[in-house]
Amino acid sequence: MFSCISTLFFAAIAANLAVATGNPPVTTTVTVTAPPTTVTEPASQCNTGPIQCCNSVDKAGSSAVTPLLGLLGVVIQDLNVLVGVTCSPITVIGAGGGSCSAHPVCCENNNFKGLIAIGCVPVSL
């Protein structure tokens, strides 16, 4: 239920930003290849930036993620790629900080200010 509410909330924010700025929408094409199977990797193997803690993680083609991608103007060619929604970086792992009560993931593209992260693989902390 929370993920549906947060998805609608962020969709409304994105729509308001698009209207408020008056700029034409920009489409961003992201090419990411999904791994053959979804496996959990150790956090130490993440070399694409900080581990992300996302409220939800789903395939790009899912009914929860597709509307967000559309509002952001993001086109993902492989709809099986995992996308994290409402993510924040985990900066310290192992020293008592850096915990995640939702979905810890390592993502290839974290350039959407925490709204989404693309090309995610679950990690074990």
From TrEMBL:
Top-level taxon: Eukaryota
GO terms under cellular component: fungal-type cell wall
Keywords: Cell wall, Disulfide bond, Secreted, Signal
Entry annotated with the keyword Lipid metabolism: no
UniProt entry tagged with the keyword Secreted: yes
Main location, first listed in the record: secreted
Similarity comment: Belongs to the fungal hydrophobin family.
Protein name: Hydrophobin
Coiled-coil region(s): none
Organism: Tetrapyrgos nigripes
